[in-house]
Every structure is written in structure tokens, then in C-alpha cells.
Amino acid sequence: MEQKKAKVCVIGLGYVGLPLAVRCVEKGYETFGLDMDKNKVDLINQGKSPIEEKFLADNLPTHRPKATTDEKIIEQSDVILICVPTPVDDLYMPDLSPVISATKAVVRNLKKGALVVLESTVNPGVSEEIVKPLFEEAGFKVGKDVFIAHCPERINPGDPKWNVTNIPRVVGSFDKQGLATAVKFYESIVDGAIRPMKSIREAEAVKIVENSFRDINIAFVNELAKSFDKLGIDVKDVVLGASTKPFAFMPHFPSCGVGGHCIPVDPYYLIERAKKSGFDHKFLKIAREINNSMPSYTVEILQDALNELRLPMKGTKIGVLGISYKANVDDTRESPTFKILTLLGEHGVKYDTYDPHILKRSTIKTLPALLKKVDALIIATDHKEFKEIDPRIFKQNGIKVIIDGKNCLDKDAIKKLGIIYKGIGR
Ligand code: SAJ
User: Fold this and answer.
1) Per CATH, which fold does 7-199 belong to?
2) pTM
3) Could you identify which of 131, 235, 378, 413 might form a hypothetical disulfide with 403, taking C-beta atoms 3.0 to 4.6 angstroms apart as the criterion?
């Protein structure tokens, strides 16, 4: 891929697409960004990031893609990278509509000979059964008029070390030329290994397997947490102990729930597609059930703790610290906090929330104001700001109960102050 000549268009300027577009600019490509959100497009064209992310803060101002809402930009593009969301609906059924509409926009505006790479996480079969037919129905010959590849995104929001510049990637395609072109492109922008896969299906399967692996390991420790709560064993101490084994163990930690746009979503793409081919992923489904049960488990623990003080749920002022799905990011997708708040509401609880990264959705805008107002706390996200709270501050504010949904506070120090502390499995 001649860097100077090739023009790149990234479709979808979110957590995945925007860093990718910035990296393409940095590596010398004329880079367009296509997004349906005009506000986001205007911000990016001013060099401002719509997303709180260190890589973007450091690089977007100086390596700005040309952002637009006009799909006609695709006509000028030699490489099109589709980075749109692949969510699930309320019934956990995959929703490929963003991928389909993005692909149709490419079909409408395709420059012949272009390379089209789907980065969005999809189940094996999507490129063959959904993407490729859209080009063929429009009369394009795949492997001649257009080259299609899949390179699953591996962005890890908030990660200080691994980002779009250095995370190794895998690439699959329908044909040798498509594969070679895609591998060469990614080698030109990533300082990491690019592994060609046997076919596009294996490339699609890689990401689903990576994230399902994480989901089942989290489910394993979440089930342990429920068991160890009954056995009086501190599961965090046990996992840290097991982590001293220098091989064949990978630590995961229980929590009030599994959020984000990847881990709780991706397994359903494989579950549903495999079911169509007659296979039932019992294990993946049980893992999802366990992880989906953690918000209600967290509220049950709160209820038990309040019962110890003969305090009713209804009428006790409860504060929930953390709305984003994981520490130190401003991303709320699939956040367990929303499920916790719904359950509190069902118990007639009047709750307040505070998240320094999501102030717009916080009912109280400062930590001291929230601590002053409530009698009990649920820590739903392990933001740095919460982990640094001096436990004596809880005492000074009359906090009686703390449910540590991320096992991130100093249990012993809090208990010594006479506050009821309950973690998830500790
Ligand atoms: N979580 C736990 N226990 C754990 C780890 C995570 O309860 O031991 C929870 C988190 O609190 C969060 C959710 O699971 O609510 C997801 O956490 P995550 O650290 O997996 O964060 P994500 O969603 O940003 O996952 C990304 C994924 N990256 C991509 O999909 C490209 C995932 O593949 C990575 O493994 C993960 O980052 C990572 O390793 O940090």
C-alpha cells in the first residue's frame, strides 16, 4: 500500500474508529472520518476529542482526520475501515444493523479496487453471509472490484500501555490479494505483529473467543464470590494467592457486574450464530447468566447489611459511586450501575449517584456533597478518586454501610471504624 497515494476512510469515529483514524494520519495517509453524528464531526475537525482517552488527548490535536457526515467521501477512498458498534438488543440478540448500513454506504460509493476492512466485532459468518452478498448484489466481484477483509478491533479503553499503535492484530480475507493488501496496510500502521488467518471466519472467531474467554473467567470468580461469601473466605485474597503461581493461572476478579461494549456482548454473537447451525453453547450461556446476576447479588448484599442495622431499604438514603462500566473511563455502555439503580428503584429506594467521569448523569456533582447526604454506599466503579478516599471520611459523614462492588477499598480499615463493609466475595 503506497502510503502517500492511498486514501483511508474510517467509518464510525468512536472508541475504535477515532484512534485508528488518528493513527492513519500519523502514519502519512490522507485520512477521512465518516460519522453520522454532526456534533462529533465538528469537534474532531476542531481537534477536540468527543471521548476521554489519553491517546486521543495526546494525538488528535496534531493528527486530525478530515471528519464528515457525507458518505460521498467513500468515493475517494482506497481503504475503508468499518468501525461501527455491534450491540445486542434487550433480549441479548445481536444487532448488525449498524454494520449493514455502513456496508451499504460503501457499496453505494465504492471506488473500484478498494480494500474494505470490517473491524467491528462480529460472529464467524457475518462477512460471508452479510457483507459479501451486499457487494455481489450490486454487481461487484469480490477479489477483483473490491477486496474484503476482517481485522477485529482490540482497543482497550483506558489502557495506558496498549493502544492502536502497538496492539498486535489478526487479519482474514476471502482471497490472497485481499489478505496481502490488508496485512500490508496494518503493518504500515501498527508496531506489532499482524497475523494472517486461514480465512475470514477464523479472523471473526478470534475476537469472539478472546472476549468469551474473559467473560467465562470473570463468571468463574463471580460464582466463587457467592460461594466464598457463604464460606467466609476472601475471594480477592485467594485469587491474588493463586496468582503467585507463575504459570497456567490468569487472575480475574469478582464485581458488581460485567459492563462495556465487548465482554458482555460478544459471547451472544457466537451463541446465536452457533444455535443456527445446531450447536448449543451451554457453558457460554451459564457464564452470561452468572455475570448478569451480579447487580442483583450486589443489591441483596446491601439489603442484608441494612438488615443487620434494622434499616429498611426504603427510607435509607443510598449513594451509588460510579456510573461508567470500568475504572477511569467515561463510557457507560452496558454498565452494571444501570441495573443496580433499576433494582434500587424497584425497592422504592431514593438513591443519589456520583461519577467524576460522567457528571452529566450524576444526581450530585461532587463527592463530598454525596457523602454528606447518604447513610449507605455502593461502590459500583473502581475509579481512582474513590479508591483514594480516606476511610475516616466515611465515618465523619456518618456512612453506616459500604457495599464495595469492585472490592477496591480497604476492608479492614473501614470495619475498624465500625462501618459495615461487604465486598463481592470478601
Ligand atoms: N471485570 C470484572 N472482573 C475482571 C475484569 C473485568 O468484573 O476481572 C468487569 C469490568 O469491571 C467491566 C467488564 O468486566 O465492567 C469489562 O472489563 P474489561 O476490563 O474487559 O474492559 P473492556 O470491556 O474494555 O474489555 C476490553 C476488551 N478489549 C477488546 O475487546 C478489544 C477485552 O478484550 C480486553 O481483554 C479487556 O479490555 C482488557 O483486557 O482490559
Assistant:
1) Rossmann fold (3.40.50)
2) 0.92
3) 378
